[in-house]
Amino acid sequence: xxxxxxxxxxxxxxTAKQAAKxxxxxxxxxxxxxxxxxxxxxxxxxxxxxxxxxxxxELSEEGKTYSILP
Length: 70
What we know:
By secondary structure, the protein is an alpha+beta fold. The chain has helices at 5-10, 16-25, 44-51; strands spanning 31-33, 57-59. The termini are far apart.
């Protein structure tokens, strides 16, 4: 979450919004968010935060397989 931006910086992580900005900058086709802190009970707010910047964002799901296409 963007409210945790300072903590993300200190721990060398990114917020969902920062990741979305990077995906936009790189002209990525999609963004798969993962490695969620256990502090977050629900992840909808995180996904919505990313989607405000990069619409093609989604949350990864444990056990699901993802294809990476060129």
